[in-house]
Amino acid sequence: MLSVGLTHFLVISVVLFSLGIYAVITRKNAVMVLMGIELILNSANINFVAFARYGDFGLQGQIIALFVIVLAAAEAAIALAIVLNIYKTISNINVDEIDTLRD
Amino acid sequence: MNLEHIISDLVFVKPELAISVTLVLIVLVDLIFKEHKKVLPYISILGLLFTTIFVIEQFDISGHAFKTSAGAGLVTVDNFGSFFKIIVLFASFVVIFFSINSSEIELVKDRHGEYYTLLFGMILGMFMMSSSADLIVLYLSIELLSLSSYILVGMLKDTIRNSEASLKYVIYGGVSSGIMLFGISLIYGITGSTNLYDINTIIQGQNFPFLIFLLSGLFVLVGLGFKISAAPFHFWTPDVYEGAPIPITAYLSVASKAAGFVVLIRFVKITFIDGVDEHGNWQLLSIIDWQSIIILLSILTMTLGNFAALWQDNLKRMLAYSTIAHAGYMLLGLAVMSEEGIMAIMVYFIAYALMNLGAFLVVMIVANKIGSEEIDDYKGLGKSMPFLGILLAIFLVSLIGVPPTAGFIAKVMLFISLVDANLITLAIIALLNTVVSLYYYIRVLKNLYLIKVEEEKPDIPVSFANGILLVILAAPILIFGIYFTPIINFAKESATILGF
Amino acid sequence: MDFPILTFLTFLPILGMVIIMAMRKEQVTAIKSLTLVITGIQVLLAIILLANYDSSLGGVYEQASFQFVEKFRWIDIDNFSWIGKIKVDYFLGVDGISVPLVLLTTIVTFVAAISSWTISSSIKGYFSLFLLLDTGMMGVFVSLDFFLFFIFWELMLLPMYFLIGIWGGPRREYAAIKFFLYTLLGSIFLLIVMIGLYFSTQETIDGTKTFTFNLLAMMNADNFTSDGILSPLNPNNLRMIAYIALFAGFAIKIPMFPFHTWLPDAHVEAPTPISVILAGILLKMGTYAILRISFPVFPEITKQLVWYIALFGMVNIIYGAFCAMAQRDFKKLIAYSSVSHMGYVLLGMAALNTMGISGAIFQMFNHGIITSALFIIVGVIYDRTHTRMLDDFGGLGVKMPVYTGFVTVAFFAAIGLPGLNGFISEAFVFLGAFGVSLIRLITVISTLGILLGAGYMLWTLQRVYLGKLNEKWADLKDLDLREYAMFVPLSIIMIFFGVYPAPMLNLMNSSVNTMVQFLDEVRVFYTSLGSF
Amino acid sequence: MTESLMINIAIAVLFLPLLGFVVTLLLGSKVKQIYLFENIILIFSLIGAIILAFFKLSSFDNTITAEFVWIDLGNTPLMGDIKITLGIILDNISVLMIVVVMLISSLVHIFSIEYMRGDPRYNRYFAYLGLFTFSMSGIVFTHNILMMYIFWELVGVSSYLLIGFWFEKKSASDAAKKAFIVNRIGDIGMFIGILILYTTYHTFTLEEIFSQISQGVLPFNNDAWLTIAGILLFAGAIGKSAQVPLHVWLPDAMEGPTPVSALIHAATMVAAGVYLVVRIFGIFTADAMLFIAFIGALSALIPATIALTQNDIKRVLAYSTVSQLGYMIMALGVGAYAFAFFHLITHAFFKACLFLGSGSVIHGMHHEQDIRNMGGLKNKMPLTYYTFLISSLAISGVPLTSGFLSKDGILAGSFAFANLTGHWLFPLVGFFVAMLTAFYMFRLVLLTFHGEPKDREKYEHVHESKFIMTIPLVILAVLSFFFWYTPNPIDPGKGWVLSEWITAPELYTPENTRYEFMIPDEVVAVDSKVMFSKMYDEAMHTAHYPAMILSLIMAGAGILLAFMFYYWNKVNVSELVEKYKKLYNWSMNKWYFDEFYDKTFVAGTLALSRFLGKFDLKIIDGIVDGSAYITKGFSFFIGKFDNVVIDGLVNFFAYLSGFIGLIFRRFQTGRVQTYLVFVLVSLVILLFIFKSF
Predict the structure, then answer these.
(1) What is the C-alpha R_g of chain D?
(2) Which residues of D are less than 8 Å from A36 in CB distance?
(3) Average pLDDT of span B303-326
(4) What are phi and psi of B283, to 5 degrees?
(5) B430-467 confidence digits (pLDDT tens)
(6) Which of D153, D164, D651 sits opposite C466 (nearest CB)?
(7) Which residues in chain D touch residue B172, judged by CB atoms under 8 angstroms apart?
């Protein structure tokens, strides 16, 4: 029977992290970018939980993960509000077209 | 850890409590007395006053609070943190006065409650940052700061550049803190702890996979570098500073940067320290070569900030680059890796807070009147604003670092620490950077005074309150430039970080 | 003497500045008069100082023989656990090297204040900055603490920038920024060496060894730490590099070839009184600082590099003269002549003997007086004709005989004609320098400067004042009372010290001797420390 | 008469003219008659000078000196005692010289009262004359070399002021400038010489220098350096006495008022060079003396050939002056010390007379100077003519005149010298020039005063000058006769001047550096003032009569030729000119010295200065500011950058900064995703940099 070990979690976490980064830098739509950020945060969460579970560090990791989930929600809310605001002003949420502030 | 301990430890977070109470108060007042938004700033100031008293009380008290293990807790109270809290408080005072007079903030009259609430959210975040000793508390407080500032940057919803700034800020900030969190998770995985002191104890004398440590260290650095806008993590700075309302720009450039520095210094020192010798030099554990990293970053930061500032036409944007450059100078103090360097950073922060806030205030007063921040629009204004002109000159000269200004003293202390640590090449690079910075600062003065224009320029009056505020900012620059014993003493008393 | 005369000399202008700032913009005459009174009082103070000065005391390296010393703790920070203490003194004092320059500063500033009478725009700003500048200059010559010195040194930059930049000629912005940049570049070298020296010198204060900015302490070999980067005791010291950096910092002010290019631009664009101050006083700061700081703090390096200093002196003399000859702009010509004349100062200093250094200091004083007169001369015709091109003039001697008379005196003083002050200082420089076999050849080549100087000066005299009168200027007026007030004192000084230079030479003699002896003895000691 | 009284008189003589200068200059524009003050003062000075001379020559055998300390720096490290004294020396040489100076100066003053009348700057003219007289007296009285240099320069200035007195004329101001600068060239040499002497002897006082040399102290312990020092000091004399190759300023100096030419550029100032050599004669080594003699010979010959063809009356006299000064210098070089100084005195009188005479002519002709426009003036201006003639005879060396005595001595000296050393060039040149002198002087006399007037109209208006102008002429002419100097018109050695007053000088140089004949024999060395060996006396004696006869023949031949050319018209001058066109042009154009100097030194200096001026602007400034090609390279940015950053500060540093800034700017695209890519890339780079730690 295949036993699921720390390595598996870490691999998942790294994949998620990479996907998050990839999303952030390639997606044009601001919402997709925000989703990328969520992926990054969640990859960290997986790490916390996995380390706590396999590293025998007590429950701290899980608690941290909870904190982060809450925080991610708050961040998403604010970010979406901002995106909405952008959409209202310029009717466009393509991040690579929002570049009036530049050198 | 039981409840009694928690309650008794609340003494250590009195300032934070005061802030929280004020925050709640503002929300309540805003909800209840809808028509009396004018009181909000005064309530804020009152709250800040109380906070100030508590912070001053906390001086010379040091200790760990909310202990999670034998020696360390979530929160550390020491003079080092208190010093930066004072800086943050000072900036907050000034910025609230800014806000009262800002025509930009005046545009969103109906949302003043929100504005001040979020401002206090930022303050709370920064206070927590200043005293956090745990990576998670640290992360959460950074997020608190960031989330509040995302909104404040986009406060004026109707202007494009405002919204754009906040969007960029939130995406950039989100990714940075995400990366940082990932780094924290790795550290947690390796050491099993998130407390800085504990981590230090754990990694001492043990062999850890250094590459992973380096990776996680650098990941954390991304988040902190973002906060202090150190190159190459600075890219958001010019855009956001330009787009944000001037009071917020000023606030970000001083307070949030101060908080970022506290965290960075604490993180580097507490986590990786091996010992401090009698000269105050740090011996770091040989896990990550922090000194080289910081040196590289500081050179990059100041050079980039200064050189890019040469090209700016927008004064706010130019000042944004200038704050990047100054962050680079201050990183030099950390690069020294000694108590002396930390002291130099603190002295620098005193001067920096004064001169940078002053410069932004002048920019705001002028922008209120002529509606522009373009440097070219300053041509010939020297005559129409004699008082403002002289003060702007003082601020800019101090930013260049020419005596007799506090900016000069700050630079001298920095160079003293550099030379003491034999980092002479670094000192010379920094000095050459100073010369470059002359170009763009002096360009403003040149436009003000040297260029004679045909057209009549409108007189730019300064309200009495603003005048007082400006003098409060400018006078210490000159006084400390000549008699700097107090600031050095202050910095010296505060330079010791709890634990070492 | 208990009266803090040096403090008064230095900070009186600041007081004046504050009063002027408080005045109304319209009180033009009051502002001008106040400035004149302040600078006049300074002259009086300088004369009182001279009267009470004991010229038998040496100074240079020991505090006891400095005079009018004012020393008290300015910055006093104790109980550093890691670097001990920070002590900075407010430390003023004069010796025979600085006294002539203090006198010069007051005279030239006074004359410049008279000359400023014609300034017509932004009077308040102008005179405030003028007085601020005055303080900076005076401070440089009287401070004996490196930190204090540096503050005064830098204090002049901004007023100068604005004075050139606001009240200057058409290309004033360019000239002002160039001046600012060059000198700021120079002062960063200064700063870094200052800090290096700070960490290499420990003075005993209240029984404990403390790092110090005290210049006199830096000259005392006992005070060097064993591991300071600029300590001769440290085998890996960087003294040579530091010396060159420091020298470069000062050389920019002199200005020494090839750092001189800011000077012609600054001069051409600056208004007359500012040119007067620039050439009359500011340039002297470079050479003064070399004498005051570079030489006694780094005696052994000085000795090693003396040939190069002399060489640069020579290049300055000859190159400056040739460039002056090529100019068509009167003011630029005078500016280059300053380059040439400051070369004599360098050459004299390089001799490291009594005659050479006396000659150099005396030349600083003389050049200050002469070149002030020369710039006023240009100013006088520029005020009347609004041109400075040499070819535009001719035959002014007919219309303005008295003026031409003063011109002749000043020009011949600049050429180094015996009987006028320029001669004796140049002669001393050459006598001193020729006495040193190492730089003898350089000295001989430098004498060419005497010839070239006569060449361009007389050519100028001819082009502007002699020959047929250019009809354009047929109704020029001769000097008015205000202009007399500038020329007469300067001419009297030129003639007096030309005929009887002894008072000035005696004034500085014991200090110069002390310096020479000190350099000679300490150099041997330093060299014996083994790192060379 | 005590010594101190003598000194006081000397001081009065010295400073009275200065007082005259100051008073006249300051009051010049207010008080019209102030020039009289200057004139009276000069008379007083003259009287003082005569008293000095009389008592010195009659009552004092010793040399009187007095000095005061000008600068005393006490004992100094490295350089020992530094003490500069100024002082006065009264010996036979200086008192004789001061009489000459004061006498001619007074006469010129008086002459000028009429000559300069009506000039707008009348008073200033006299003031300048006072300044000159003061400076010249300073040279005469000085007992130290630095003071000599000081007054040396001062006479230069007064000469500058006087040559350029009519500065509205470009030629005058040019000439003044040229005089000063050419003189300075010599002065630099002199100054370096002084530097050598001071460095070696730590004093400027001649006496002390002499005594140290005679004790064997040599500059840099090498007698070659003594030679060099001597030659360098002599360079001052080359300049001031207008010796080849620095003679070019003197003819041009004739742009000044004619009395000035008489005073400064004929009689006194130009003689200062000779005086200097006389003063320091004792330090010249044989090599230095040979050099001096050589320069003297060249200076005697070349200008004499030029004078042959010149048409400007003053220029002829100017070249003749150079030539005569060359004689004196040559005489000093060959050791005929006494005759050289004697010739200095006699020449001063007759040359001053010639110049004032020419002044009288010019004045009478209303500022006509070209002899081709003159002629026949003999009848209109008899007094001028006769005095001019007498002086011409004197300069040609006709017997019974003073010039005969002194010139003959010089020729004899060179003859003797040639005999002793084999340098026959000097007597050859000497005699040849004697003939040339006689020729061109009489050419001048004949063309000016005899023959038909060429310019009738002018001629009609000519009249003899006023009494106040002719008196000086008469006095000077009378002084050109022999009897003032010696009762024996043939042998000057028998007169009081040469046997009593001017004696052979002491020599201080090491004996191995002297000519053999200048090493005194033991017998005569002790008491007698004769410092040369008997050998020399004998040679002189042998040379005396042959030289006299030969010189008479040469002078006669010259005069005869002149008469044949210009009086009897036996020779067709213009035909001759055509025939020897090249030679004529060569002489007419003054050997092309001016052209040569203009094309080489002057043009070279100016070109160099222009080059360096440009160099300074473009390169030196450019290295810092950004040179041209970098400008091209970055031209794209410049347009913007100039306006944006520092409005036209083209600065290399700025370019570089701007360029770097531009690169940094490139990163600031405004797109947040790009920023994040940069962040990640930097993260990776950082990781790679530090992974090996």
Answers:
(1) 32
(2) none
(3) 91
(4) -105, 115
(5) 998 898 888 889 889 888 888 888 777 788 888 888 89
(6) D164
(7) 672, 675-676
Question: Does residue A101 belong to any structural domain of this protein?
Answer: no
Sequence-distant (6+) residues with CB within 8 A of D147 are: D86, D87, D138, D204
What are C472's two structure tokens?
């354009």
CB contact under 8 A, B419 and C238: no
Cβ–Cβ contact D495 with B under 8 A? no
pLDDT in tens, C338-378: 999 999 999 999 999 999 999 999 999 999 999 999 999 99
Q: Read out DSSP for C176-239?
A: HHHHHHHHHHHHHHHHHHHHHHHTTBEEEETTEEEEB-BHHHHT-GGGB-SS-TT-TTSTT--H
- Residue-range definition of the domain harbouring residue A37: 6-91
Query: Which chains are within 8 Å of B by 3+ CB pairs?
Result: A, C, D
**Any idea what DSSP says for residue D77?**
T
Q: How far apart are CA B152 and CA A82, in angstroms?
A: 11
Rounded CA separation D136/D162 (Å)? 14
Q: Which residue of D has its CA nearest to A36?
A: D673
Helix, strand, coil in percent for chain A, rounding step 5 = 80, 0, 20
Tell me which H or E stretch contains C244: helix C239-253
pTM of this structure? 0.92
Q: pLDDT band for C532, please (50, 70, 90 cuts).
A: very low
Which residues in chain D are contacts of B308 at CB distance < 8 A? 661, 664-665, 668
Between CA D179 and CA D200 the distance in angstroms is: 32
- Under a CB-based contact definition with an 8 Å cutoff, are residues D436 and D308 in contact? yes
Give the DSSP letter of residue D592: G
CA torsion, points C131, C134, C140, C146, in degrees to nearest 10? 10
- For tokens 């010959």, name the residue: D301
Contacts of C133 in chain B (CB under 8 A): none
Burial profile C318-345: b = 16 or more Cβ within 10 angstroms, e = fewer: bbbbbbbbbbebbbbbbbbbbbbbbbbb
- Whether A99 is covered by a domain: the verdict is no
Element (H, E) at B382: helix B381-384
Output the six-digit token pair for C117: 């009478």
Render pLDDT for B352-392 as a digit per residue (tens, 0 to 9): 999 999 999 999 999 988 888 898 888 888 888 888 999 99
B442·C157 Cβ contact <8 A: no
Q: How many CB atoms lie within 10 A of CB D494?
A: 11
Residue scoring higher pLDDT (C405 or C231)? C405
Does residue A64 sit within a domain? yes
CATH of the domain at A57: 1.10.287.3510
**Residues facing D85 on adjacent strands:** D69
Interface of C with D in 110-129 (CB under 8 A): none
Is the preceding omega at residue C264 within 30 degrees of 0, hence cis? Answer: no
Beta bridge pairs of residue B195: B134
Instruction: Give the number of domains in chain A.
Output: 1
Question: Chains B/D: 3 or more C-beta pairs closer than 8 A?
Answer: yes
Q: How many Cα atoms within 13 Å fall on the side-chain side of residue D170?
A: 5
Residue D72, H or E segment? strand D64-76
- C87: enclosing H helix or E strand: strand C84-94
High-pLDDT (> 70) share of chain D, %: 91
Give C-chain residues touching B278 at CB under 8 angstroms: 81-82
Q: What is the pLDDT of residue D590?
A: 83
Q: Is the pLDDT of residue B168 over 90?
A: yes
Residue of A nearest to B158 (CA): A89
Q: Give the least confident one: B37-51, C510-524, D428-442, D533-547.
A: D533-547
The complex's ipTM? 0.90
Phi-psi sector, C409: left (phi>0), alpha (psi -120 to 50), beta: alpha
